[in-house]
Amino acid sequence: MNNFIQPGDSQEFTAVGSVTAGQPVQFGYAFGIAATSVANAVKFIAKIRGVFEVTKPGSQAWAEGAAIYYDIGTNKFTTSATGNRLVGWAVGAIGSGASETTGKVYLDGMARVGDTT
To answer: For the chain, how long is the longest CA-to-CA vector?
Structure first.
């Protein structure tokens, strides 16, 4: 196949401001987790597909397979669609205890605005 460019689980972006490894990044509809830390205007790789452990509100339970959104204001992943971007789905269930502040999410590379499905 002569039109193949690269595998699709990582993508190169140019930093807008500084970027920290492990930080969620969004460019238009593209969404991922930065693989390295870089300064403004430097190219970097973000993992856009795969399962990641992410920060969530401790007060929120996640069901396995639940739609997961990214809340840019709190820098947390959530099941609340209002004002947030759909980025993937929950891998496994997690409770709503105060100490349950991380969950596992499958990211599919897209940040869909207003998508509640």
So the answer is: 52
The answer to whether the pTM exceeds 0.85 is: yes
CA dist., res. 60 & res. 65, Å (int): 15
3-class state of residue 20 by DSSP: coil
Domain ranges of the chain: 10-47, 51-113
Mean pLDDT, residues 20-48:
96
CA 1/CA 84 separation, integer angstroms: 38
List of residues 6+ apart from 67 with CB closer than 8 A: 79, 81, 86, 89, 116, 117
The CA angle 51-35-78, to the nearest 5 degrees, is 45
